[in-house]
What we know:
Helices cover 38% and strands 15% of the residues. It is an alpha+beta fold. A four-stranded antiparallel sheet has the order 1-2-3-4.
Amino acid sequence: MSMxxxxxxxxxxxFTLLELVLGIAVMSVVLxxxxxxxxxxxxxxxxxxxxxxxxxxxxxxxxxxxARRYDENSLVIGNLRCGETxxxxxxxxxxxxxxxxxxxxxDRVTWDxxxxxxxxxxxxxxxxxxxxxxxxxxxxxxxVQVSVNYNNTFSTPVSSVSxxxxxxxxxxxxxxxxxxxxxxxxxx
Length: 188
């Protein structure tokens, strides 16, 4: 083969229009499949952030609740627990089931026992009402629900007077499933 034949063949080698269109079509299908697989993963990458925020929010509220007395009828002075001899009876489950309002009103600053938090349903910025600054904005779209119920699981030997109260906090982040946190408060 002569040099001119080789040069002519090299000049004529390349892609045809059909090959280019087919290559573009294959590339677009591949890119479509890749982006379809990557975009859901990018959205899920924020889930751990919401889980951490919900844990922080629940722990903050749980600390606030557990710092309160066991029952409205537990005496602060004299250290008498409700249900003991010389003290008033403990609040009943029927009274807890009534979610009308607490005896202290709607201001959480005046709530003095765990029962006052029963049926609390607030958005995240209301849960952090005592904190100022940018932190409140991070929780603005979270929702928090609290329930308080008697639970006989730990009634003995922790307290022979009355069963423990199960405090359940359900945090609903802006995206993702509800996250539930629980703790017990014994009558001590």
